[in-house]
């Protein structure tokens, strides 16, 4: 692969992480699950991708998220938040707040609209990102950082590109059944090692993958046990509340589109300095590793925990229903210098060829109703 060469400090950090992963492989009979490898690569304190000190977002990072593209994204989410707050409580909670840009845009829009916010909670695993958030949000005293979820919650929850960064297990279909793809070390390099899938993975396959027995031999895909566990925890918190809604924005598919018989290599993807590639073993700790979200699995977990699926729609329908077009027109189109960059960003957010169709929004909660303009875009029947 032709990728940018890391700095000497970055290489040293990656080598330290590789040694740590190799030691864990050695102490576990020569192999670990891919989910464990991904967890170590992303979240090892001080060395993992999300726990180290390198920039992750924007032009100097590895990828760009919707809040980094335009403040219109956060302003649109703020409109939806205001509608839920009117039915619930003036509390917001965000998972994985990145640079703090989304929180800043939501809080700025709500402040300008005169909507009271008592608390804006942030759950952030990355110490480096938490520090950036504290600088970005220093003018908003309502912001509080949490290390754990409250037992119950009323208000609005946002998670933008959170589920895709959760560790996944990998499995491969063979004529005699499913095998797990584990990670081993051979000739000084991390490699896949096939092993029989255990009862827990086989149960996930049976529940998660429609018509799994008819997929072609050699078919590789992901299982989302960690994300399902996260959804169960989130749903239990919401179930203990009275009125709330959580909005999870990410790239992914419903199950029957996710496990398409021609998607034979799965959806696992890595991001390094705005280059996308499929090798998760390239310089662990220096690149993001993600998988698309199985939104059907997430919705089923939410329902099992006793909360409702309020809506499922593509990002374009959600943002347009939230009034992002009206928000753009607050900038005078005659002012080309101000208007055109925002118009281009909006096009990227809603175009089916960009983020508008690939990114979806799953809304779950209880005791509230979504705005009618969003309900009209609903695709829950496709889950």
The largest sheet, given as strand count, sense and whether it forms a barrel, is:
8 strands, mixed
CATH class: Alpha Beta
Number of helices: 14
* Overall pLDDT level: 94
The shape, in one word, is globular
According to DSSP, the number of beta strands is 16
Number of domains: 1
Distance between the termini: 37 Å
Q: Which topology does CATH recognise?
A: Rossmann fold
Structural class: alpha/beta
Rounded Rg: 21 Å
State the helicity in percent bands. 25-40%
Low-confidence runs (pLDDT<50, min 5 residues)?
Answer: 55-61
Proportion of beta-strand residues: 15-25%
What's the helix-strand series? Answer: HEHHHEHEHEEEEEHEHEHEEEEHEHHHEH
SSE inventory with pairings:
Blueprint: H1 8-26, E1 32-33, H2 34-43, H3 66-69, H4 71-85, E2 91-95, H5 101-112, E3 119-123, H6 127-136, E4 143-146, E5 155-160, E6 169-174, E7 177-186, E8 189-196, H7 199-208, E9 220-223, H8 225-239, E10 244-253, H9 255-258, E11 269-272, E12 275-277, E13 288-290, E14 293-294, H10 295-304, E15 308-314, H11 315-321, H12 324-328, H13 336-350, E16 359-366, H14 372-375
Parallel strand pairs: 2-3, 2-5, 3-4, 5-10, 10-14
Antiparallel strand pairs: 1-7, 6-7, 6-9, 7-8, 10-16, 11-12, 11-13, 15-16
Helix pairs in contact: 4-5, 8-10
């Amino acid at each position: 692969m032709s990728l940018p060469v890391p700095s000497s400090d970055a290489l040293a950090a990656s080598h330290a992480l590789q040694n740590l992963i190799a030691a864990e492989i050695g102490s576990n009979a020569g192999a670990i699950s891919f989910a464990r490898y991904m967890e170590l690569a992303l979240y090892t304190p001080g060395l993992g991708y999300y726990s180290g000190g390198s920039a992750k977002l924007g032009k100097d990072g590895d990828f760009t998220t919707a809040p980094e593209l335009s403040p219109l994204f956060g302003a649109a989410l703020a409109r939806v938040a205001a509608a839920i707050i009117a039915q619930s409580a003036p509390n917001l909670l965000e998972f994985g707040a990145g640079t703090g840009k989304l929180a800043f845009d939501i809080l700025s829009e709500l402040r300008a609209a005169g909507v009271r916010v008592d608390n804006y909670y942030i759950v952030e695993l990355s110490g480096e990102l938490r520090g950036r958030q504290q600088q970005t949000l220093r003018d908003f005293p309502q912001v509080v950082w949490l290390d754990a979820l409250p037992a119950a919650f009323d208000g609005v929850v946002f998670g933008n590109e959170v589920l895709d960064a959760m560790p996944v297990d990998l499995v491969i279909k063979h004529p005699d059944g499913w095998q797990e793809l584990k990670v081993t070390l051979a000739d000084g390099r991390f490699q896949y090692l096939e092993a029989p899938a255990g009862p827990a993975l086989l149960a996930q396959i049976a529940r998660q993958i429609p018509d799994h027995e008819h997929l072609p031999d050699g078919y590789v895909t992901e299982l989302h046990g960690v994300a399902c566990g996260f959804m169960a925890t989130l749903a239990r918190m919401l179930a203990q509340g009275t009125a709330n809604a959580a909005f999870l924005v990410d790239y992914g598919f419903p199950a029957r589109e996710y496990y398409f018989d021609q998607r034979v290599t799965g959806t696992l993807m890595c991001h390094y300095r705005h280059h996308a590639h499929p090798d998760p073993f390239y310089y662990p700790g220096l690149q993001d590793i993600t998988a698309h979200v199985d939104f059907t699995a997430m919705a089923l977990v939410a329902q099992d925990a006793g909360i409702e699926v309020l809506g499922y729609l593509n990002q374009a329908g959600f943002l347009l229903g939230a009034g992002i077009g009206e928000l753009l027109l607050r900038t005078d189109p005659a002012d080309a210098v101000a208007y055109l960059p925002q118009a281009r960003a909006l096009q990227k957010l809603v175009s089916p060829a960009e983020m508008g169709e690939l990114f979806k929004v799953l809304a779950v909660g209880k005791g509230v109703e979504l705005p009618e303009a969003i309900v009209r875009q609903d695709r829950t029947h496709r889950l």
